[in-house]
């Protein structure tokens, strides 16, 4: 009952005309971003952060705008998967397997709307799961002391590479790099200047938004522009979207599929190190094992092969918000970017968020419900419009992204030094991505570095300098076990799991 | 030559060399970090950065050693041309430096032109020239008006 009344208050916040308009705008822009091949939700949110701050919005409206972009991008990722066989982002990879054959059979419209419905159901129930699970997790989190928080942050770093990580050393040095960047500036407790090299612009440290926009948005511009993509997408190679609504029989056959995909995806989202990619892979694999053991229909345009991964990855995106909001620890790249938004707005996610800023957190959850309905309503009738975005030449689109980044960072900081720093981060992001060094641990290091250090110092002060404080409680020990398992397991199984995911995707495509 | 560049072996070697360079670079960053911590007067300020630097050096060394012993088939820098990459970065940096002097519109024009030249892989025709440059000018002016006039962002 308490939760329901809090949610009702949240709806009162989210249903104001301004917030509704922002949710609509976020959904629309997010779907456009997600539809572009290669641009995922993390990039989409990163690109639009400067705009949200330029608008001078308060914490709740900014969050509503950006989480709507997140959900929208998750929806949009399926468009290029189905029409072009190019996943909009990694979680949409599995949608290609049956979505593209459906499009080739003249069922592009049906595949798009079915995947839209599956996405809606997945995201809707994941948001319900968020409502139920987050307050329970908060109760556990209230038992955490500084030592447990320090170990929890270690868990976040250890598991962020995910089960599909093939090089944990790279994930670890990326995290250490992020932690080092977070240390730049004056030490908040002692006033020592760290890594400033007497440069006045660095005394206040590096604003993490500059790093995020540079690493995610600008590096994307570099990657897009250096590749020869002209002529790859023309109106002739985008299949025609004719019949939009799926027939009742098709829908009915997909109900159990969507249910299974939603449950599996949600838990994959909540678990550290799993995420939307694994959610969609598990949902697809389970479905194939359940309904098509002989491989007769899957991979040849089976609607259930479209519904399962879409329900799975959208449910995972809702699930990933649980640890981010309740513990302040993001489980994926996009939630790391959303965490940065919260911190920039002077809101510290974690157990106290639910008691200190209930309007923000419940307003946000209510906005997720509203955004989800908007996305369903928007994605079915406007699907032809969203497919048009695939035809926009990247050589026009990417300079626009660069311009948004420039003007956005300048409007936040008013400093050309920071704009240059952003270009530097963009360059670093390009280099790291080329060499397959994950960017998310860098971002997480920048975001959590100071909090991690503060908690370490507090724990050491409480224990009078005794290091054993970090293994001094059962909770801390459990967290260490999770951290070690999360770091070691990908070394043992990461390559196998990734190879299986890629092989499943390739094998089905070759069959066609 | 093009066959060699397109071959998987070249990509793998290039990726390994790239990983080697980046690992070595991060080892150096870690050493500089450790050196910098020596100048802090307070012991409390040293602990965390030193820990991060040690992790950075250790993991970069592991990555470097594994890269040498067991090179993996990484994509490396790919087949994009270096002059395009350099042009992009240089024009963006020039644009940053020029912003206080030329204003937002002038600086954006530099970045846009650089980006467009770098991104243009095909043949320039008068139609393309007019279309891309015209739409570029339109986008820049629209952004300027939106941010400066509507959103009241104090752009230079």
Distance between the termini of chain B: 48 Å
Residue runs with pLDDT of under 50 for 5 or more positions of chain B: 1-12
Shape of chain B: flat
Number of domains of chain B: 2
Helicity level of chain B: over 70%
- Main interface: chain pair and counts: A-B, 63 and 71 residues
Give me the side-by-side strand order of the main sheet of chain A: 1-2
What pattern of helices and strands is seen along the backbone of chain B?
HHHHH
Q: Report the radius of gyration of chain A as a whole number of Å.
A: 22 Å
How much helicity do the residues of chain A have? over 70%
Radius of gyration of chain B: 23 Å
In the predicted model, the low-confidence regions of chain A spanning at least 5 consecutive residues are none
Number of domains of chain A: 1
How many E-type strands of chain A? 2
């Amino acid at each position: 009952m308490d939760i329901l009344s809090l949610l009702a208050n949240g709806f009162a916040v989210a249903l104001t005309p301004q917030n509704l308009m922002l949710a609509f705008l976020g959904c629309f822009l997010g779907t456009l971003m997600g539809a572009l091949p290669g641009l995922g939700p993390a990039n989409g949110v990163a690109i639009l952060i400067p705009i949200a701050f330029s608008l001078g919005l308060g914490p709740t409206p900014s969050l509503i705008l950006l989480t709507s972009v997140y959900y929208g991008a998750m929806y949009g990722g399926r468009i290029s998967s189905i029409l072009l066989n190019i996943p909009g982002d990694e979680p949409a990879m599995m949608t290609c397997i049956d979505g593209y054959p459906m499009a080739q059979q003249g069922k592009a419209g049906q595949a798009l709307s079915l995947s839209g419905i599956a996405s809606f159901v997945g995201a809707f129930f994941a948001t319900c799961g968020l409502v139920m699970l987050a307050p329970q997790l908060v109760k556990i989190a209230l038992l955490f002391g500084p030592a447990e928080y320090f170990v929890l942050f270690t868990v976040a770093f250890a598991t962020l590479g995910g089960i599909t990580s093939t090089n944990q050393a790279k994930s670890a040095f990326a995290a250490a790099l992020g932690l080092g960047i977070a240390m730049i500036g004056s030490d908040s407790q002692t006033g020592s200047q760290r890594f400033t090299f007497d440069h006045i612009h660095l005394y206040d440290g590096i604003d993490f938004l500059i790093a995020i926009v540079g690493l995610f948005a600008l590096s994307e511009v570099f990657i897009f522009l250096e590749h020869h993509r002209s002529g790859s997408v023309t109106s002739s190679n985008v299949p025609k979207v004719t019949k939009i609504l799926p027939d009742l029989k098709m829908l009915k056959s997909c109900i159990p599929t969507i249910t299974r995909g939603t449950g599996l995806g949600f838990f994959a989202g909540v678990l550290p190190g799993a995420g939307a990619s694994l959610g969609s892979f598990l949902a697809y694999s389970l479905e194939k094992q359940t309904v098509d053991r002989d491989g007769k229909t899957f991979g040849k345009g089976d609607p259930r092969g479209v519904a399962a991964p879409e329900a799975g990855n959208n449910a995972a995106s809702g699930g990933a918000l649980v640890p981010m909001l309740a513990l302040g620890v993001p489980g994926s790249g996009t939630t790391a970017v959303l965490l940065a938004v919260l911190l920039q707005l002077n809101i510290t996610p974690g157990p106290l968020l639910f008691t200190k800023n209930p309007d923000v957190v419940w307003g946000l959850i209510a906005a997720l419900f509203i955004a989800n309905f908007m996305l369903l309503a928007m994605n079915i009738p406007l699907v032809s419009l969203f497919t048009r975005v695939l035809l926009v030449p990247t050589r026009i689109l990417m300079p626009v992204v660069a311009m948004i980044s420039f003007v956005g960072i300048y409007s936040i900081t008013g400093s050309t030094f920071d704009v240059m720093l952003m270009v530097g981060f963009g360059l670093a992001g390009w280099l790291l991505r080329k060499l397959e060094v994950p960017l998310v641990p860098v971002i997480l290091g920048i975001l959590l570095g100071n909090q991690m250090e503060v908690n370490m110092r507090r724990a050491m002060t409480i224990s009078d300098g005794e290091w054993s404080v970090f293994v001094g409680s059962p909770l801390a020990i459990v967290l260490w076990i999770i951290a070690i398992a999360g770091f070691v397991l990908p070394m043992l199984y990461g390559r196998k799991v990734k190879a299986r995911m890629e092989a499943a995707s390739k094998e089905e495509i070759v069959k066609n | 030559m093009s066959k060699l560049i397109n071959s998987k072996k070249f990509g793998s070697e290039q990726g390994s060399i790239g990983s080697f360079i980046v690992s070595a670079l991060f080892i150096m960053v870690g050493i500089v970090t450790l050196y910098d911590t020596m100048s802090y007067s307070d012991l409390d300020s040293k602990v965390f950065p030193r820990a991060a630097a040690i992790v950075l050096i250790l993991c970069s060394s592991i990555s470097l050693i594994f890269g040498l012993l067991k090179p993996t088939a990484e994509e490396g820098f790919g087949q994009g041309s270096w002059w395009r990459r350099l042009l992009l970065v240089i024009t963006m940096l020039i644009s940053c430096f020029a912003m206080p002097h030329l204003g937002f519109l002038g600086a954006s024009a530099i970045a846009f032109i650089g980006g467009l030249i770098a991104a243009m892989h095909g043949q320039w025709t008068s139609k393309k020239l007019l279309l891309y440059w015209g739409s570029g000018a339109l986008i820049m002016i629209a952004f300027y008006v939106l941010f400066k006039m509507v959103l009241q962002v104090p752009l230079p």
